[in-house]
Every structure is written in C-alpha cells, then in structure tokens.
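The following record pairs a protein chain with its ligand, calcium ion.
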Amino acid sequence: MDALDIITDLDNVIPFFQPIFSADEHRVIGYEILGRYKGNEEIESLGPFFLDDQIPDEYRLEVDNTVLSKALDMAVDLDKDVLLFINRDADILMQDHGEQFLQMLQQYEEKGISLNRIVLEISKLNYKGEFDHLDHLLNYYKTFGMKVAIDNVANDNNQLDRIGQLGPDIIKVDLKALRSTATGPAFQDVLYSLSLLARKIGATLLFENIEMVFQLQFAWKNGGRYYQGFYLCTPCDHFVGRDILKDRLKNEFHSFIVSEKKKLESLYSMTENFQVTMQEYLTRYRKIIDYEELLKALVKHMNDIAFRVYICDEDGFQKTPNFFFTGGEWKIQREYLQKNWSWRPYFLENIIKMRYEQKGILSDLYSDIETGETIRTFSYPVNANDYLFIDFSYSFLYQHDGLL
Ligand code: CA
C-alpha cells in the first residue's frame, strides 16, 4: 500500500467501528473509530499509515480527519448514551494546540453528538513536547465534557506517574501480552498496580485485544469494566445492535462468578481448617509458657507445610526468633528477635482484625522478600497480646488445589 495512493484517494478512506462492551450492563457502550482503506482487492488497516513517521504530519492528519468526519456523519443517529473513542497522536494534536480537532467536534455537537460522548484516546505518553502542555490541553478538553483515555498501557510499565498526572477517565490495557495462562507474573503484577492506580484516581479500566475467553475472565477478575476485542466483536463498517452480546455475556460472566465463588469458598474453608488445627495445638501445648519452646513444639507438625514461623506482639515487634525450615530441619534465626514488621502492608490492619474477631487470617499470594517464592501467610492470635505467623511454602500451596 503506497501512502500516495491513499492521500490521493480519500473517497476510499473509510471508518471502521469496534464495539466496546460493559461488564455492568452487558451492552455496547461505545465504539473505537478505526481507519481503513478500500484498496482494489481488500480493505486494509490504516494503522501502519498513521504510525509511519516518514509520511508528513499534514497528510496523516488529513486522512485521520477524513476518517473522523465520515465516522461522525454516521454516528449522528446513534443512541445518545453511546461513546465514541477517537485516536489522536499527541504530537500531531499539539501542533495547533488541539484547536482544529475541537472545532471539528463542536460542529458535530450542533448535529447532536454531545462532547461528553467523545473519548479522546491518547497513545503517546512518550510525547516529544512538554508533557505539561499536553496535560494542559487535556484538562482544557475536559472542561467541554470530553473524556480522556490513555491508550496502549501495559506494554510500557514506566508510565504510572504520567498516567497519574493526566488523570484519565479511562485506562486502556492491551491484553495482547496475555496470550497464554502461563504469562509471567510480572505482567500480572503490572496490571495489578494499574488496577490499584485506576481505583485511586477514579479511572475506568478498559481491556482491549481480548481474543480468548480466558482473557475476558482475566479482565473481569482484574477490575475491568469495559472490554474490546475480536473475541467479542470484530471491527466492521457499521454499528451493531447495542444488545448483540447481552445474553452471551450474561452467561459467560455467570460462569466466571460461579468459578470465582468456588475458589473463594474453598479458600474460606481451608482458612477454617487451619484455624481449628491451630486451636487444637495451642490447647495441647497450653502449659508451655516460653514462646521459643512453644514454637519448637509447633513446628514439629509443620515440616511439609511451612518454611518460616515466628511470633510478634501487636505493634509488630518480633518476640521469638524465626524458625526457618531448610535442608530438612528447623533452624533458629535469632537475629530476627525484636525486628519490627509494622511497616508491612496490611500488618496493623490484620492485627486489629484478629484481635477483634479472635480468628486467624490467610493472606493473599505474594512474593517472599527473602526467598522470592510465592507464598501465603497464616496469622493467628496466640493470646490477647501476641500473634503467630506461619509462612506456607510454595510446595505446600502447590499441592493444595485452590491455594495457588
Ligand atoms: Ca486505540
């Protein structure tokens, strides 16, 4: 495809629309507008054309505006609650401080497309100019009701601060990297940080490039409210019925809910089991006053279960050494005595919870700082003041369905 062919043949430059679905209503909540060129043999994506730095900006802008005006002409008749996602290159947008783009949208506002239905997708966080200027423009757009989405997130995980600064309404997360369930934990951790950030700044997560059912499940489980991808609907040259997937999505989400509830119930019952077992041991050894002696007795039951056991007071000061299982035996690590763990995430929250409920807590999965292994910790109130911590080994979690 020759760039010149496209520029001289704008009649055959057309918009395609990819529907975006929501988790809360299972309907089409919007469309991303994409550019296509109707060549002699087939319809080609204009993606490579728009990304080609060799093509002068004014040509790319002209083609981009052609796609947009044709798309908006068609969108005039859409339902008034359907959003329109429009891609714009930050560098090109900033050349006239975003004026032309705004004027175009305002023309269509008169025809019935309110600006609060427009979602501007900004993909270039590596924007070459002053980042503050871009930030300023986006804030200016927002005063007209326009929404801002940060596109193509998760391929570059150094952008959290910039995302935070821009305060987007929507964060688009590309799930292409999530091709198989074996995708490394690093990607999942990035997504986890993104979901926390989104929650903090009040942004909605949109997962795109969903091509398989497990990616949809992943998106649902990771706080995704909006979804887009071939698995749901391919881009095409017209709008689809807003409820086209309503029944299918309802069924699929139902199966996600069932399987997630099953997992949570099994975790809950395992926590109850640990609880009962721990109660039994503490009753059995109630005459042992010295904590170190108590742990010596307890760890005998934990060879294949835990790799680290210790007791802390409610301020997080360690009152015993670590009992650490290595090379087939429990070693006592005295250097841990009096260390303080109150700075660790959730530590004090969990202490207070245990104190009030007089029950143990099973942590989520996390990486142990020292061993790097994926572990869970079971914590348990020994008495009114002190708390027992048991770090379960990876091999134990691995052997028990539902713990990993
Ligand atoms: Ca996009």
